[in-house]
Design brief:
START-like_dom_sf, SRPBCC family protein, Polyketide_cyclase/dehydratase, 3 helices, about 170 residues
């Protein structure tokens, strides 16, 4: 992959794709139901909406609680910055003007089903990974590389879960 040599300040990205044998509307029902996401992730433990929101809409906020063996447990507040049913859903982690990460699901009607992608960008704002890098600055590139591979693996698993759920309905 293209992460070799990447530094946090490079805002590295990763994207995974899957074709789902279901229409975008059905896939959207799953992608936009954040209560399902903890069951699809080893890292994400829970999600709850803030300010009375019941689901994604531009400006809606939610808290995600996560756990990682090497990084510990943490909680972040994310902001939905793009929501176009049933095409794209994007959220920024922490400060939307300088996020710790940006996540996006994109859905495209293709070949009688849905081309589904999940994309994420690390940084430019500080995150838990920043603290690991602060402690071992000489290992920054390795830390970023390993974390991006973890994201890729977890995102691939998430898309597999979404595909299974959408095709079973």
């Amino acid at each position: 992959m293209e992460w070799t040599g990447a530094r946090y300040a490079d805002t590295p990205t990763v994207e995974v794709r899957a074709w789902v044998d279901a229409p975008p509307d059905r896939v959207w029902e799953i992608v936009s139901d954040f209560s399902l996401m903890p069951g699809m992730s080893d890292e994400l433990q829970s999600v709850h909406w803030l300010d009375g929101a019941a689901g994604p809409a531009v400006g809606a906020r939610f808290v995600g609680r996560s756990r990682h063996e090497a990084l510990g447990e943490w909680e972040t507040t994310s902001h939905v910055v793009e929501c176009e049913c049933p095409r794209v859903l994007t959220w920024a982690v922490e400060d939307p003007s300088r996020p710790a990460a940006v996540w996006r699901f994109r859905l495209e009607d293709k070949d009688g089903g849905t081309d589904l992608s999940e994309w994420m960008q690390l940084g430019p704002g500080r995150s838990g990974l920043s603290f690991a890098i602060d402690g071992m600055p000489d290992k920054e590139q390795k830390i970023v590389f390993v974390r991006m591979r973890e994201f890729e693996r977890n995102m691939t698993a998430t898309l597999g879960h979404i595909k299974k759920l959408a095709e079973e309905r």
